[in-house]
Design brief:
Elements: H1 3-8, H2 13-108, H3 113-135, E1 138-140, E2 153-160, E3 169-174, E4 177-179, E5 182-185, E6 187-193
Amino acid sequence: MSEREAASGAPPESTTESAAQDHALLEARLQELEAERDALRREREDARRERDEMQERVTRLTAEFQNFRRRSETQVEDQVRLRLEGLISNLVHVLDAMDAAFGATASSLGHDKAALAVLEGFEQIRSLLGSVLASVGLQKLEVVGKPYDPRQHEALLTVVSAEHPPETVIAELRPGYLLRERVLRAAQVTVSKAPVKQG
C-alpha cells in the first residue's frame, strides 16, 4: 500500500473488490432466501386451501351420511310399520271369523256341555288374541251413536230415522280398528238420514 493510499484512508483495491463480491454474494443469497420464502408462502397457502377444501368435503360427507342414515332409518321404520299393519290386518280377519263362528254356534249348541266347553276354550283364545293385538296398539273403533266420519266409517246403508240426528251411525255391520291412532280398517256402518218433509 502506498503512503498516499494509507494517508487518504481509502481501502485497498482488493478490499473493495472483496466487499463488492461479498455484497454480490449476499445479494444473491438474499434473492435465494426471498425466493424460498415466497415458495414456502405459496406452499402454505396451497396447504391451507387444501385443508379448507378437505374440511368442506368432510362436512359435506358428514351431512350426506347423516341424511342417508335418517332416510334409511325412516325406510326401515316404514317397512316394519307396513308389515306390521299387514300382519295385524290379517289377524283382524281372523277375529272377524271367530266372532262370526261364535255368533252362529252359541245359539245352536243348546245345552251340550262338551260343545259349550270347547266354545269357551275358543272364546278364551279369541280373548287372548285380542289382548295381544291390543298390546301392539290395536283398538276397536266405537262407532254407534257417533257422527258419521268417512275417515273412520264406511256407510253401507242409510236409514231414514226420526229417532237419530241425521248423519249418525246407528248400527255397526263390521267393526273398524285403529292401529296406533291410525285407521287400520274403517267400520262398516248404517247411517241415519233425516225423514223427507211432506209439504
